[in-house]
Amino acid sequence: QVQLVESGGGLVQPGGSLRLSCVASGNIFSIYAMGWYRQAPGKQRELVAGISSGGRRNYADSVKGRFTISRDNAKNTVYLQMNSLKPEDTAVYYCNQVLRYDELLQGRASGSWGQGTQVTVSS
């Protein structure tokens, strides 16, 4: 069973930046598509960015041009660089994985959800 540990969240002013990290252990990280998801209070969890095992990337419209997902297979880590943050980006951010990239883009996630990392954008 994969374990996913997110970190890097915090309180930031509008327009600021944060870099989130997610370390995976317990399976062969490199063969999985990885995704960053977020859940704001009172809302459903949503996929904000995905990266395939081969490095293909997709983003939710709300974060395009501001967020960048990347992965380091040697470190079993996926990152989310978040720039030009807005108050509406406030949420708990989670990572997860699926073997098939097309399934990840449909919102599937095969791992157990970790604790996530809180991102708060406020002045």
Proportion of beta-strand residues: over 45%
User: How does the helix and strand content classify structurally?
Assistant: mainly beta
Backbone CA Rg: 13 Å
Largest sheet, in brief, is:
6 strands, mixed
Report the oligomer. single chain
Distinct helical segment count: 1
Q: What's the helical proportion of residues?
A: under 10%
Mean pLDDT score, rounded? 95
Q: Overall 3D geometry?
A: globular
Biggest sheet strand line-up: 2-10-9-4-5-6
The low-confidence parts are: none
Index terms:
46% strand; 6-stranded mixed beta sheet; 1 helix; 10 strands
Question: How would you portray this structure in words?
Answer:
The strands form two sheets. The chain has a six-stranded mixed beta sheet with strand order 2-10-9-4-5-6. It has a four-stranded antiparallel beta sheet with strand order 1-3-8-7, with no helix packed on it. The mean pLDDT is 95. It is built from one helix and ten strands; from the N terminus they run βββββββββαβ. The chain is 4% helix and 46% strand. With 123 residues, the chain is mainly beta.
